[in-house]
Write a structure and sequence with these properties.
It contains three helices and six strands; from the N terminus they run E-E-E-H-E-E-H-H-E. It is α+β, with helices and mostly antiparallel strands. The chain folds into two domains: 1-38; 40-137, K homology (KH) domain (GMP Synthetase, Chain A, domain 3), CATH 3.30.300. Strand 4 and strand 5 (86-98) form a beta hairpin.
């Protein structure tokens, strides 16, 4: 079981502390509140992207692919009405390295999204999750 803590600081600003005692600032994007933290809805996009990234890197390392970089761009489309639920999330992976095959990246992404990533498993029944990738061999 994971346990996190969220502590209110002031206005609409909070400190989130994860189960390993790492913290981050959470806030609304409203400039009147300082807007210095991450929006709660963006935390979901960060979670899905980073969960999948973790798996992708691990799987490609096991396949002995030599990665030198990874960038993930996550786009979310939300409903226009409250509660503004995410309807679609697309993740684009830009994988850099030497001798990285598209087949290895495709297999790793499939395994992450369908088998290993807790966040995609949680969202998959209610959100249209898609991925794409670009391999840049240096």
């Amino acid at each position: 079981m994971s346990e996190i803590h969220i502590n209110w600081v002031e206005k609409q600003r909070y400190i989130g502390i994860d189960s390993t005692l790492h913290s981050l600032v959470i806030s609304t994007p409203d400039a009147r509140d300082g807007g210095i933290g991450v929006k709660p809805s963006d935390l979901l996009l960060l979670a899905v992207g980073s969960c999948t990234a973790y798996d992708l890197v691990n799987i490609l390392r096991k396949k002995r692919m030599k990665m030198t970089g990874l960038e993930i761009i996550v786009n979310g489309v939300q409903s226009l009405q409250a509660p503004w639920a995410f309807q679609k999330i697309h993740m684009e992976f830009r994988v850099k390295g030497s001798n990285i095959t598209e087949k290895a990246v495709a297999q790793a992404l499939d395994l992450s999204v369908t088998k290993y990533c807790t966040v995609t498993a949680t969202l998959s029944s209610s959100v249209d999750l898609t991925t794409s990738y670009i391999v840049v061999n240096e």
